[in-house]
Amino acid sequence: MQIKLVYWGVIMALQLLVLNHLGFSAFVMPQVFIVLLISMPLHWSKMIQVAVGFGLGLLIDLFIGSPGIHASACLWLVLLRIGILNTQDIKQQIANKLPYDIYSVGVTPFFYSALVLVFFYHFYIFWIQNIGSANGHRYLITTLISSFLALTIIAITQYLLPKRAS
To answer: What are the residues facing 41 on neighbouring strands?
Structure first.
């Protein structure tokens, strides 16, 4: 349990103190903190998952000063996650109260879900931030680059997390 709290703290610090202040360009804004929503324990009720998603999104909004964009995106991400997980055979992981990570469900199912969820999240926040703009190609470029960088960092963090912490 302590390792999980440290993991959550490290991911949030990485997002809020490092990734939100990179300033590489307008095309690189990875949102890595969503791995916390993607890897929530499978036995949590849907209401708890939605509440955690909203709370985490609201926390990010408060730190970066956005008007509810991340809270909204996190709610949609949790709902999409629930839909994706309903298509997977995870009964054993739910019974054993495991989180959704590469050690409990395997590399392929985890990264399939992470790919869909990370791409959706980035597309959603960039679309909402720039609603009414005529730069459709910019949304796609920003989404692809940011999603690729976020997935790379998520993969690294998943492999660094010890098996026994799952």
So the answer is: 99
Contact 47, 38 (CB under 8 A): no
- The number of residues in the chain equals 166
3-state SS class at 99? strand
pTM greater than 0.85 (yes/no): yes
Residue 78 vs residues 26, 115, 156: alpha-carbon distances, Å: 26, 14, 22
At a CB cut-off of 8 Å and minimum separation 6, what does 43 contact? Answer: 94, 97
For 107-154, the pLDDT digits (tens) are 999 999 999 999 999 999 988 887 766 666 777 888 899 999 999 999
Extents of the domains making up the chain: 2-22+30-165
Q: Is 75 helix (H, G, I), strand (E, B) or coil?
A: helix
Q: Say which residues have a Cβ less than 8 Å from residue 67's Cβ, sequence separation at least 6.
A: 61
Q: How far apart are CA 92 and CA 112, in angstroms?
A: 19
**What is the reported pLDDT for 165?**
45
Which of 40, 33, 84 has the alpha carbon at shortest distance from 56? 33
Strand, helix or coil for residue 42: coil
